[in-house]
Amino acid sequence: MAEVVLFHHARGLTEGVRRFADGFRAAGHLVHTPDLFDGILPESIEAGLALIRELGDERDRRADRAVADLPGELVYGGFSAGESVAQRLAQTRPGARGALLYESCIPVTGEWAYGPWPAGLPVQIHGAEGDEFFGEDLPAARQLVELAGPELAELFVYPADAHLFTDSSLPGYDADATALVLERSTAFLTRLD
């Protein structure tokens, strides 16, 4: 069994994020889904990004508090804006077992980087080919796979055309692509056991 912390996207801790986490639970994994917005569900991605800007560093402090009492040996996962929180913790909190990065990826070199990718840390990155947000992050995702190496890092691009395609409670949901994301992610978690 893997223990996972899954961070929500800019629309908040939606029912779709909860259902995705339930897919991991059904496979026998322990999953935590902290609500970094304290119950707020923004009406749009833009409104969510505005809330993230308003929260500033408080969002990271909330994430740090959410994991403070959990063991270090966690898999960190996050969707879109939540991916940055997951990636930061995977790269900087000792003991990380893996990272599941959905619909976004932060560069591991340059001014936006949290530092180098930790040696030996496995990662999967998932995104939609028609997603303009993920399209901007695709070079960073490819760089991460190249730097970590194919034995540790995998990049999957799906024929979906919307951002947040893995969230069953939002209009851009793609059931077929999400089923494949869950299958691959669950296999990743199983390999970590």
From TrEMBL:
Pfam families: DLH. Keywords: Hydrolase. GO terms for molecular function: hydrolase activity. It comes from the Bacteria. Residues 4-190 form the Dienelactone hydrolase domain. This is Dienelactone hydrolase. It comes from Amycolatopsis albispora.
